[in-house]
């Protein structure tokens, strides 16, 4: 295409860019910016951490607490974490003016208390996840407070008593 043709098209179309930051930026409805995690909704299940391509999300376990950390400096704004979150705790915002002189300002955290198996004491899940499982699934609380191994043994014991295994 000749320069004359390009100039003709450009003159006809007019200016298509914005004088940002002197004018508001053009944010389309599809625009994805930083994500926001609602601590009151998050269970600490870790599904968002597993799906996050650049590891912008991490779940750290200190033995007493599990900390979900979001580092916006690594985020590629794909929105996959929000899609997989079973608690609908992640919102994809339109925030993009995210620069900071402090690395700490680029991180946000949700802290969860962990529960231990009421039988063997091993870590099971977060308190929020336990509450949600008891509320939304058929697992009775007496089984939900156990780790998978102890749950299996308790269930096997209960089943053997029911069918009379070992009885004369
Ligand atoms: S509840 Fe949602 S935000 Fe919380 S850890 Fe699970 S997937 Fe991530
Ligand atoms: S938007 Fe994408 S890159 Fe950013 S935290 Fe979520 S999954 Fe990770």
Structural features, described:
Helices cover 30% and strands 19% of the residues. By secondary structure, the chain is of the alpha+beta class. It has a single domain (26-163), classed as Alpha-Beta Plaits, CATH 3.30.70.20. The strands form two sheets. A four-stranded antiparallel beta sheet has the order 2-3-5-6. A two-stranded antiparallel sheet has the order 1-4. The chain is elongated, with a radius of gyration of 25 Å. The site of one iron/sulfur cluster has 13 residues, from α2.
N-to-C order of helices and strands: HEHEEHEEEHHH
How much of the residues is beta strand, in percent?
15-25%
Distance between the termini: 95 Å
Number of structurally distinct domains: 1
Global Rg:
25 Å
The unreliable regions are: none
Structural class: alpha+beta
Helix content: 25-40%
Assign an overall shape: elongated
CATH topology: Alpha-Beta Plaits
Q: Tags for this entry?
A:
168 residues, alpha+beta, two-stranded antiparallel ribbon, 6 helices, 6 strands, elongated, binds iron/sulfur cluster
Q: Could you give the topology of this structure?
A:
Blueprint: H1 3-13, E1 35-37, H2 47-51, E2 57-61, E3 65-71, H3 80-84, E4 90-92, E5 107-116, E6 123-126, H4 127-136, H5 141-144, H6 148-163
Antiparallel strand pairs: 1-4, 2-3, 3-5, 5-6
The structure holds iron/sulfur cluster (2 copies).
In short:
This protein has 168 residues and is of the alpha+beta class.
């Amino acid at each position: 295409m000749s320069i004359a043709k390009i100039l003709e098209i450009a003159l006809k179309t007019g200016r298509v860019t914005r004088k940002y930051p002197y004018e508001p930026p053009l944010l389309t409805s599809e625009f994805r910016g930083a994500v926001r995690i609602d601590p009151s909704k998050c269970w600490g299940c870790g599904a968002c951490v597993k799906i996050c391509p650049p590891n912008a999300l991490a779940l750290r376990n200190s033995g007493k607490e599990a900390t979900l950390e979001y580092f916006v400096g690594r985020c590629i704004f794909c929105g996959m974490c929000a899609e997989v979150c079973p608690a609908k705790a992640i919102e994809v915002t339109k925030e993009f003016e995210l620069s900071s002189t402090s690395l700490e300002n680029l991180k946000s955290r949700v802290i969860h208390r962990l529960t231990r198996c009421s039988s063997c004491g091993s870590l099971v899940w977060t308190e929020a996840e336990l509450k949600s499982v008891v509320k939304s699934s058929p697992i009775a609380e007496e089984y939900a407070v156990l780790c998978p191994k102890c749950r299996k043994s308790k269930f096997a014991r209960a089943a053997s008593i029911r069918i009379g295994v070992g009885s004369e």
